[in-house]
Design brief:
The chain is of the alpha/beta class. 40% of the residues lie in helices and 19% in strands. The chain has 14 helices and 15 strands. The strands form 4 sheets. The protein has an 8-stranded parallel beta barrel, surrounded by 7 helices. Strands 7-9-10 form a 3-stranded mixed beta sheet, covered by helices on one side. A two-stranded antiparallel ribbon has the order 1-15. Helix 7 packs parallel to helix 10, helix 9 runs antiparallel to helix 10 and helix 12 packs parallel to helix 13. The model has no long low-confidence stretch (mean pLDDT 94).
Length: 401
């Protein structure tokens, strides 16, 4: 194989992503903290200190900047900012503002996620997203975040993977899986879907009121549903409630975040397992780096012209860092091809900056940076050096046979 190169578009975002609960540690006022410590939930391990990034965020940002990344997506935790209904912590708002300032001081453009799966306990106790006043409560929280995002934050994600949240809501009602797997059979809860769309639209308005220059959108988990022969109609019916309705809701936003890891093949009766000889990642998913290309093209087809795309998550859980580099190289070929074909892709942020808490386990290592669980020492993996270096060259690798 020979390699050519494709330049980044001007202003292309080149970074890595994290989520507050997965890296900060001790998010004690959240619904997930309670769930992790409830034996009935059957969570394998609790998050506890996680990566202690609440205290060590400067180390994380130092490493990312030194490696060559230009952008850092991180989450702020609603449960910290509003630990009790109507009570907003000035200290926590100031903490997250220091993170924004710290990113900017290091030459990292901060992308802030307002909601990444966790909610305050009091919000869950009210009934969650489908409770009376839920949209208003979320909007009030977004408005309270104004000091964090008003200056220097160019991109804000309102809600991460609402389709996964709606699937979790459906699973909670049926007693199904505690966390949705790729290609899971659960249909997103319809009431939760409508509530999340309403909350997103209200949050978009609130963010634009804070600063009309902020680019605001949300991120959608793309499962890359692929129809087997004769299953085209079944695939469309399967895909729309699990993905497309959330993509359609992003029309009119400043961007949509595209997140993908693997594919899901659909037969006439639903999902079909990956081939028996397929390589698997630590999550059990099929190794399929082409997923991001399919996800970008599908999202562009559904949303139509006028809404830019940003890859806000893409990566692989593996203990073999050479396979991580292979995965990213093949995935970036797909990103480059999409750009060359005229799709408006404005950034690529890898999942994840750190090996972190993957919702019940620390075994699924997605990180570019390893974290010692005892000392919290950070060590950049070769994949981090390789991927960060692409940010310096300002070129996407392009593989041609």
């Amino acid at each position: 194989m020979t390699h050519t190169a494709t330049p980044f578009p001007d202003g292309f975002l080149w970074g890595a992503s994290t989520a507050g609960h997965q890296i900060e540690g001790n998010n004690v006022n959240s619904d997930w903290w309670r769930r992790e410590h409830d034996p009935a939930a059957k969570i394998e391990v609790p998050s506890l200190d996680a990566c202690d990034s609440y205290h060590r965020w400067e180390q994380d940002m130092d490493l990312l900047a030194e490696l060559g990344f230009t952008d850092y997506r991180f989450g702020i935790e609603w449960a910290r900012i509003e630990p009790e209904r109507g009570f907003f912590s000035r200290a926590e708002i100031a903490h997250y503002r220091r993170m924004v300032d710290g990113a900017l001081a290091r030459g990292l453009r901060p992308m802030v996620t307002l909601h990444h799966f966790t909610v305050p306990r009091w919000f869950e106790d009210l009934g969650g997203w489908t409770a009376d006043g839920a949209v208003q409560a979320f909007t009030r929280y977004v408005e309270a975040c104004a000091p964090i995002i008003a200056d220097g934050v160019r991109h804000v994600c309102t809600i991460n993977e609402p389709n996964v949240i709606a699937i979790l809501a459906a699973g909670a009602r049926t007693g199904d899986q505690p966390w949705p797997t790729a290609g899971g059979t659960v249909t997103p809860d319809e009431e939760t879907t409508h509530a999340l769309i309403a909350a997103h639209r209200a949050a978009v308005g609130a963010v634009r009121t804070v600063n009309s220059e902020i680019k605001v959108g949300w991120t959608v988990a793309n499962q890359v549903y692929q129809a087997l022969s004769g299953a085209e109609d079944a695939t469309v019916a399967y895909t729309h409630p699990r993905e497309d309705v959330f993509i359609e809701a992003a029309r009119g936003d400043d961007f949509i975040g595209v997140q993908s890891y693997t594919r899901t093949r659909i037969g006439p009766d639903g999902p079909v397992p990956a081939p028996a000889d397929a390589e698997r990642t630590l999550t059990g998913w099929e190794y399929y780096p082409a997923a991001v290309g399919h996800a970008l093209r599908h999202t562009a087809d559904v949303i139509g012209d006028g809404t830019p795309l940003i890859v806000t998550e893409n990566g692989i859980a593996t203990a073999d860092d050479t396979r991580r580099i292979d995965y990213y190289a093949a995935a970036l070929d797909q990103v480059a091809a999409a750009i060359e074909d005229g799709i408006d892709v404005q950034g690529y942020l890898a999942w994840s900056a750190l090996d972190n808490y993957e919702w019940g386990t620390y075994k699924s290592t997605f990180g570019l940076i390893a974290v010692d669980p005892s000392t919290f020492e950070r060590t950049a993996k070769p994949s981090a050096v390789w991927l960060g270096g692409l940010g310096r060259t300002r070129e996407l690798p392009r593989t041609a046979s």
